[in-house]
Amino acid sequence: MNTTxxxxxxxxxxxxxxxxxxxxxxxxxxxxxxxxxxPESKRIRDMHPNDLSESRKKLIFFLSGWLGGPKLYSEAFxxxxxxxxxxxxxxxxxxxxxxxxxxxxxxxxQPYDASFKLYLIDQLRIPAERIRMACNR
Length: 137
What we know:
The chain is an all-alpha fold and 137 residues long. The protein has helices at 13-17, 20-37, 42-45, 53-66, 72-77, 82-86, 93-108, 114-134.
């Protein structure tokens, strides 16, 4: 998809650049597959249930609305406060960095424009940092 003139973060541009729901599903599936495979993510993988079906669905639905697409998470699960929903976990820089690493590897596997790949990872660092801060109060 050629999105070099697209202004990510406006309207549904980011959602469309990510391939909409089909593209987000591929991204999230790759993300969790990578989390299962690389040793750097063992600690964050252990924070998840063995069956990742619900985790996958929640992340896909969250990313849909967060990127300007349909607000699927709130429709299915109600309002979301990402930092508060993770505050019971022990998430420090190492865990946050491992999450971003898994996402970077997953993003690299997607057919996104290079500019969107960079944009997406930069944007994902924001909630990752908010979660880390909420877990270390």
